[in-house]
Amino acid sequence: MKVKPTSSKSTVYNKKTYYFCSESCKQKFVAKPTNYVKNK
């Protein structure tokens, strides 16, 4: 899903900003970011 960077629903994890379509999606990410971000 593409989300516009102008979205107010964003958070920073490991010095990278992530944008979300809804507050509930953001909260799920904040609770367990390792479920959503692959380690490089």
UniProtKB/TrEMBL annotation:
Molecular function terms from GO: oxidoreductase activity
Any Pfam family: YHS
Descriptive protein name: YHS domain-containing protein
Domain YHS: 1-38
Membrane-crossing segments per the record: none
